[in-house]
Amino acid sequence: MSDTSWLFIAFTAMWIGIGAYLVSLAARQRRLEARLEQLTGSQSAREE
Amino acid sequence: MTQPTRGASERLRYLGVAAWLAVAASIYLALFVAREAEAAAGGQLQRIFYFHVPSAWVAYLAFAIVFVASIAYLRTRSVRWDLLAHSAAEVGVVFCTIVLITGPIWARPVWGTWWQWDARLTSAFVMWLTYVGYLLLRTLAPEPQTPRLAAVVGIVGVVNIPIVHFSVYWWRTLHPSGPSPANPSSSSGLGGPELAAFFAALVAFTLLSMWLLALRVRLGRAQQAVARLELGLS
């Protein structure tokens, strides 16, 4: 395998890693925001 | 505080834009401006150095933040410090993992082996294991003691950073070293374009890690807000 192919593999692995972490952060944030909205709704309903 | 303020969201956005612009510039400099290294150093593959070393720097930085935030947590018992330590550990593990993946990919064609249990590689692996252990502890330890136990690990774990960094000077290792602390002017083999690519990547990865850290802290705040509301409703 050529140097350029190894470089491509290393480069791809690195950005897949960072991308996967970003996707995981975004997914967790979305889930929490949805849950937060749901809980805020329940709290308002209780107060009424 | 359940929601970040508008100002905080805007700052986060600007930081993200700055980080990605810096990353784009550093990729350009590393791939198209820096000259190809000699074959013994990996030729084209040596360009991974422009991302491997900044990833290691960012991992050190993140683990140093864990150390400072852990001390601050033990002194103040403020959940803000605990959240910062937890978030920095996660970001540090991401970049330390990148170091441990890109290093062997460089080593395979240059050294003829993926891995050597030499001082630098072993101590870097131990550093990674320490902070993966820290994150596992945060998941598995009984709830009221988690932040305190994690803070102790976060403080003790920092001992390994100088060992990883100076291992190439203290012991004979296969791993390449930069200019030594005893002789800082010794040749790093980098010319002007290479130094520009290297420092651009250092800045880019620092900005990127700070952005990821800020995103992770925001996530932690949302988790705390959900936990508080769930407690209030139960």
Describe this structure in words.
The complex is a heterodimer of chains A (48) and B (234). Chain A is an all-alpha fold and 48 residues long. Chain A contains one helix and no strands. Chain A has one helix at 3-47. The mean pLDDT of chain A is 90. Chain B is globular, with a radius of gyration of 20 Å. Chain B has helices spanning 6-33, 49-76, 79-111, 119-140, 146-156, 160-170, 192-233. The model of chain B is unreliable at 183-187 (pLDDT under 50). Chain B is mostly helical and 234 residues long. Chain B is built from seven helices and no strands. Chains A and B meet through helix 1 of A and helix 2, helix 3 and helix 7 of B.
Summarize the entry for a quick read.
Helices cover 94% and strands 0% of the residues of chain A. Chain A is mainly α and 48 residues long.
Secondary structure layout:
The complex is a heterodimer of chains A (48) and B (234).
Chain A: H1 3-47
Chain B: H1 6-33, H2 49-76, H3 79-111, H4 119-140, H5 146-156, H6 160-170, H7 192-233
Key phrases:
heterodimer, A: 48 residues, mainly alpha, 1 helix, 94% helix, rod-shaped, B: 234 residues, 75% helix, globular
